[in-house]
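Sat 14:20. Reprocessing the chain from the morning session after the first attempt stalled halfway. Input below, unchanged.
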Amino acid sequence: MIILVINGPNLNMLGKRDPNIYGSETYDDLIKKIKRKADELSLEVYFFQSNHEGAIVDRIQEALTDGTDGLIINPGAYTHYSYAIRDALEILDIPKIEVHISDIDNREEFRRYSVITEVCDVKIAGKGTDGYTEALEIIGRSLG
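Finished this time. Tokens:
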């Protein structure tokens, strides 16, 4: 089973962003953590990170035909206003999980609303990078 992990703007800056909110793990640490969990669950995982909305939309659309079985997405700031990403996700008929390292529901007012949530099967927020491994477990069970 092939799982695609998409990370949006500034996720590549993990380890440099506010550690009180995002922890001290780097983006490379996150990738390694996800790969270890994927191996444990016998899942094949691919990664895509972009700071550009259109590139994220293009990659989601590619998942329609490239054999992707499940999707984990942290759209970063696009969570709160990207109807383009939301509409692309809505087209995909595979398990989709929205992940946020911080607890967006208890942060600044503008971060509390997600246009993505209603087109995903599950939302995981506030569990640090462990939210990604939890998402893998959920997708593994749903596809298993």
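The chain has five helices and five strands.
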